[in-house]
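Practice problem: Transposase orfA for insertion sequence element IS200/IS605 group
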Amino acid sequence: MESNRNIIFDCKYHVVFCPKYRKKVLIEPVDIRLKELFLEKAMELRTEIVEMEIMPDHVHLLIKCDPKFGIHRVVKHLKGYTSRVLRMEFKHLKSRLPSLWTNSYFVATVGTVQLDVIKKYIESQKERSD
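Answer key — structure tokens:
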């Protein structure tokens, strides 16, 4: 569990995105540098990358972030920062792709408690107040 000034939260998201045209450009040494950049930017955003896997043509991230900041902003910052730095450091990325990442991505919430458990908890709260 995490907290900011007025909420306690445990929000985790599975995020997947790809390089433009699904090109297989995320190979050594680009993939190693990409992992470093993700961790660097996540720390700056006060976001945790719980798990990550870099495939040649896509990225999987398990991100834990403050819902007040929002997963969309986290993904936007991660993609923008890594695209800028990688294209500067690896000139072949700049010549082969107009931008590193596609505009789209996949995101799904990852629950820590099952729905039926939450329903039972809510129902038990009513019984406690009676």
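Discussion: The two ends are 30 Å apart (CA to CA). Students who identified this feature from the tokens alone can consider the problem solved.
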